[in-house]
Amino acid sequence: MRRREWLWGLAGAVALAVGALCAEPYARIATPYYAAIDRLIAAAHPWTIEQLRVAGDPSGHGSVLRLIGEVRRQRTDPGPAALVVSRIQVGAVIEAPLVFWTLLLAWPAATRRERWLRLAVGITIFFGLEAITTATQLVHSMAETSAYLASGPPASDDDPLTLWEHWSRFLEAGGVFAVAMAAALGTIALTRAIAARHAVH
User: Nearest Cα to 14, choosing from 83, 92, 103, 90?
Assistant: First the structure.
């Protein structure tokens, strides 16, 4: 029990250090992946991703991951109906990776084989986690703009236009932490089940 508590404490300290020092480098490394996912999403809508990169925060506080995109009413329209700029703080970008990998690596494993299996499965699930958190947050403004162009503004700011907006508000209200925790615990449970099945055979 003491060893587990010590491991958790060490993992937490490392996570805090990584979050404080590596948020911007991580955002730069992950940008091509986010861009690929967002362009894949945009291909199914009348949207165009013009730029996605790490830039200075207009407020002067650190850096942000900034997406610039165009929204058309119809794909065949010769020009865009709106230009959308979406920003996420780099500190928020690294939240899901920190929670996911800290929990996954600190959680005890029965065998070394289970540990390696957990890492292999974890990499796959992690890519999905990043797609449904940061990547979708970046394009939710484009979905909102499309809905606005199609049906006008909502009755109030508390009346989200789309499911994208509902999801984005959930993530901003602490949902990223919850989703990352669920993904890590799901990975742990899955790999334990696989390891146990192979042990029986």
Answer: 103
Q: Which pLDDT tens digit goes with each residue over 133-142?
A: 999 999 988 8
Q: Which residues of the chain have pLDDT under 70?
A: 1-13, 15-16, 18-20, 152-162, 198-201
54: three-class secondary structure by DSSP: strand
Single out the residue of 193, 181, 179, 178 nearest to residue 118, CA to CA: 193
**Distance from C-alpha of 160 to C-alpha of 94, rounded to nearest angstrom:** 26
Q: How many other C-beta atoms are found inside a 10 Å radius of the C-beta of residue 162? A: 16
Task: Give pTM, 2 decimals.
Answer: 0.83
Question: Measured between alpha carbons, how far is 30 from 159 in angstroms, rounded to an integer?
Answer: 32
List all residues 6 or more positions away from 11 whose beta carbon is below 8 Å from its beta carbon: 102, 105, 106
Strand ranges in 22-168 using DSSP code E only, listed in sequence order: 47-56, 63-71, 82-89
Residue 53: domain span: 2-200
How many distinct structural domains can be found in the chain? 1
Model confidence pLDDT, tens digit, residues 61-74: 778 999 999 998 88
